[in-house]
Write a structure and sequence with these properties.
By secondary structure, the chain is an all-alpha fold. It has twelve helices and no strands. Helix 4 runs parallel beside helix 7 (about 175-210) and helix 8 packs antiparallel against helix 11 (about 285-290). The longest helix is centred in the C-terminal third of the chain and has 40 residues, at about 215-255.
Length: about 325
Amino acid sequence: MMNTSCPRVSSEFKGRFLPPVYFLVFTIGLVANGWGLKSLLQKWRELKIINVFVLNLGLADILYLLTLPFLMFYYFMKSKWIFGDAFCKITRFCFNLNLYGSIGFLTCISVYRYLAIVHPVRMMGRLTVTHSVAISIMVWLLVSIQSLPDILYTKTFGNTTGKCYGTTHDTYVEEYLKYSLGRTLTGFCIPFLITLGCYGHVIVILCHKNTTDKVQKQRSLKLLFILIVLFSVCYIPYHVLKNLILWSRVLSKQHKCREWSNGVYIAHQISRGLVCLNSALNPLVYLHGNEDIRSQLRQLLQRARQMFRRPPPTDSGSVPMNQITDEV
């Protein structure tokens, strides 16, 4: 006898795993991005080209971080959305803006570093802060246009299920899979290849030029390492597993059951936690690209060490330990 439906995957793991991760990212990300943006804005008149991209990267993170308390409450209440269909779509839209905006601005930073190191004479004076502002506006527009179709898909299904879908209801999952694959190609794969190509060429140039400043070489290698961590930990697993779980849902709808569906579902939930970590890891770009922020961080760490190393003040009127009674 043929099964008419596939066994449902367990959704309990999502409710246990995502809220603590969201809380951690919200706390660290809000402090780190707030501090980084404050440091950049304090010297707005001296803002450099690359810092414009870093500033927009921070704004994209803040935009997403402000939605996390609502998602924490949602998953803590066992996936019961009480904030309405419109706000559900806004929340998911902010996630997409952060995700693909972050990838876009990281790509801009990579291209700028490539031009500054590989073609310094040709680009001298040609790329200004005004150009970087215009490019940033274009990135926001492209990411918004790319993410707008996601809003058109059903997110709450008439609120009969109490869900706020990150993708859409099973009724429209086939169409959404096609849209997701296209967005993965244009919003992730192409920028990733551009970033990889830029820094691959930069590393080759730096390694073959004996006259290259060692400090510049170290900074480029550090930024390359940060970008590799961001893409490897946050972006690659999420996009692979998201499209895989959508395909699994399409097969399940067609009554084609797969034994790996439950394992892929759990892995996808882990990747959802990892992808939001980009909002907490992106401030590493601030530390790399802004010497003022690094010096401020060193000062804070020195003050913290002095506070812990400082001996406690002695009080002549204090009571010795051997004279303490129950009345004290």
